[in-house]
Amino acid sequence: MTTQTAQSKRNIVAVVPAAGIGSRMQADKPKQYLHIHGKTILEHTLSVLLAYPLIEKIILAVAPNDPYLPTLPLLTHPKIQVVEGGENRADSVLNGLKAIKSAVQNAKNVWVMVHDAARPCLTHQDLDKLVQVADPQGAILAIPATDTIKRALHNLQIQHTEDRSQLWLAQTPQFFPVDTLTQALEQALQQGLQLTDEASAMEFAGFRPHLVAGRSDNIKVTRPEDLALAEFYLNRTK
């Protein structure tokens, strides 16, 4: 764990990949542009990050010619920089990292928080716990698995029950040194690896990121039923 001195030497930038279409939501627009309490999910997410004092800048990676982006008032905020996203999450994140590295002379002390655009219920309490980690292997928010987990065969019959005592469900933000994560993502993409989060790239590179216990209400809006749940959680802060 870090000391206050170590924390003070770091510059923290957030990257928010928001170029996906969210097909599982079965909506007429990408899920990050669906509305809760009169604001888009993306605006809720960005607002949490903007209000966190240790985050100096936010890089938002969006699809080329995104027609919904100009409708967001937050785009005029001086802390937000928009870059073009890629074909998949890893490409979008990598574009964000390259934007960070091109904007600073020395990225050695820059750390990045990569956060899902569709996780609007993030709390500053979880961010406080995450930034305590100074190990260069980085850290992610996650929650211990509590449900019984089955491994399935191809025909959807149960193969066996997993031991959940060592299983965690990954969340975001995921927090790493910019240089290290950039190299890990580039190597993973060159090898054609399928990445579902940034920690996967770090694992393939031989690192063992820390698990930081987060809150179960830090949900990712993925399916239609998630929208009502996110609305419920966000309503508690109104």
From TrEMBL:
Q: What is its EC number?
A: 2.7.7.60
CDD domains found in the cross-reference section: CDP-ME_synthetase (cd02516)
> GO MF annotations for this entry?
2-C-methyl-D-erythritol 4-phosphate cytidylyltransferase activity
Entry keyword ATP-binding: no
Q: Where is this site: Positions MEP for the nucleophilic attack?
A: R164, K220
Q: Which pathway does this polypeptide act in?
A: Isoprenoid biosynthesis; isopentenyl diphosphate biosynthesis via DXP pathway; isopentenyl diphosphate from 1-deoxy-D-xylulose 5-phosphate: step 2/6
Which keywords accompany this UniProt record? Answer: Isoprene biosynthesis, Nucleotidyltransferase, Transferase
Which residues bear the site annotation Transition state stabilizer? R24, K31
Instruction: Say yes or no: keyword Nucleotidyltransferase present.
Output: yes
| Reactions mediated catalytically | 2-C-methyl-D-erythritol 4-phosphate + CTP + H(+) = 4-CDP-2-C-methyl-D-erythritol + diphosphate
Q: Name one Pfam family in it.
A: IspD
* Family assignment from sequence similarity: Belongs to the IspD/TarI cytidylyltransferase family. IspD subfamily.
The record's NCBIfam families line, in alphabetical order, gives: ispD
* Physiological role: Catalyzes the formation of 4-diphosphocytidyl-2-C-methyl-D-erythritol from CTP and 2-C-methyl-D-erythritol 4-phosphate (MEP).
Its name, as the record gives it, is: 2-C-methyl-D-erythritol 4-phosphate cytidylyltransferase
Query: What is this protein's gene name?
Result: ispD
